[in-house]
Design goal:
Keywords: Carbohydrate metabolism, Kinase, Transferase, Xylose metabolism
Strand content: 15-25%
GO molecular function: kinase activity; phosphotransferase activity, alcohol group as acceptor
CATH topology of the largest domain: Nucleotidyltransferase, domain 5
Protein name: Sugar kinase
Radius of gyration: 22 Å
InterPro entries: ATPase_NBD (IPR043129), Carb_kinase_FGGY (IPR000577), Carb_kinase_FGGY_CS (IPR018483), FGGY_C (IPR018485), FGGY_Carb_Kinase (IPR050406), FGGY_N (IPR018484)
Shape: globular
Number of strands: 23
Number of domains: 2
CATH class of the largest domain: Alpha Beta
Pfam family, one: FGGY_N
Structural class: alpha+beta
Amino acid sequence: MVQAVFGFDVGTSSSKGVLASLDGEILAVAQRPHDVQRPRAGHVEMDANVWWRELCDVLAELRQSQPDVEIVAIGVSGMGPCVALADAAGVPVRPAILYGVDTRAMKQVERLTDELGGEDAILQRGGSVLSSQAAGPKFAWVKENEPEVYVQASRFFMPASFLVWNLTGSYTLDHQSASQCTPLYDTEALTWYEPWVQKIAPSIELPELFWAGDVIGTVTSDAAAQTGLPEGIPVVAGTIDAWSEALSVDAHNVGDLMLMYGTTMFFVNTVESVVRSKEMWGTVGALAKTRNVAGGMATSGAITGWLRELFGGADYGELVQEAARSGLGARGLVMLPYFAGERTPILDADARGLIVGLTIDHTRGDLYRAALEATAMGVRHNIEAIEAVGGQIDRIVAVGGGTQGDVWTQIVSDVTGRPQVIPTHTIGAAFGMAWLAACAIKPIEAKDWNPPVRTLEPNPENHERYSKLYELYRSLYPATREQMHTLAAFQQEL
């Protein structure tokens, strides 16, 4: 029997599992696509029970494809910060409210900011100001808008912690995820801040905190019966997917920036000491004694997926080829990628997408190219904001599904003027959790688990041309913000 570890991740558009040897060889990968629910404008939810069903399904497929593999440790991660309220038995009482793409709690953000002493007081304790990304206001939203649901709740989960609960019966959360539950977590004391917990979520029993990779339990007899796994396999604490992705590509050292290409674009920069920012997110890291400056766009791959559907389900490969033929500047189109509001660095849930320069001569390839360039412009904006608040970026490591092929990644390097390290495996968070699970069995250096294979360099001439378009890109949001907000208010009334 070959000893292997199982890593699993719940993403926005799919769940993915990987079996890997203890030396990092990928033995098998399986995936399950899923959809989020958008019951009304600004609301983005998902049934937490889907996460467990998909883990069981993926695991069954992987074990069937690799009958000679013995799974010796398990790690799980997921999108976040999410708020999945549950009763004392861990049964969800409503769909999980997702991370910053769900903007329903903006009134609670404003009210809590005032009640807790203003942005500076929250920033000092939590590392970030309240925004659509913060989990705390979402508790308040449920308490105020669904009181009959809230009274049923006594616990809360994120995808990783919900899966750990189902596997081990341990009610836990990792410190990194907790640090995005602003303002409930104290980033200096590394614990829940009880005065604000009692004000915002007084009836919720908050989970015990661990660091990602800590062994916190083993597979129970009940979980064994549901998954087909032997009882007693160790399970490590998980974390939010972007941080697991950073671990998967050894981008967790001071000066590293993990750039995640996915449904949304995410950034994790590791720094030497605490950074507080009103534009970005100051968090603790996935591993003990680490600190991060992080950020996230509300869309990236979500826009290309939306365009694909508008184009009748066109093949992605064809669209990428057409975008490549469109050329730099998408034949005179500039897009703002705020199709679901925007997270960092503008933190504006009411921002809206914008396409400028359209003519009847433009093609779907031009639009697709404009979407790729828009996300690249957003990447540059975030990189500049990270460095402005004290972040240190010496190396950018790319990860995620969007790294397949060089069109998108080359556009990002050309727009930002920054090289990107491409690792051997870019399959993402599930592989990072496999590494953490393997580390519970024996010490393994991340650089040996997933070494880099090449560096993608920017084209200086393209960077100069893109810099002129970037100036135009940056001017569009302040010039149209008022109109965006008017339309957002109109949409929310529908």
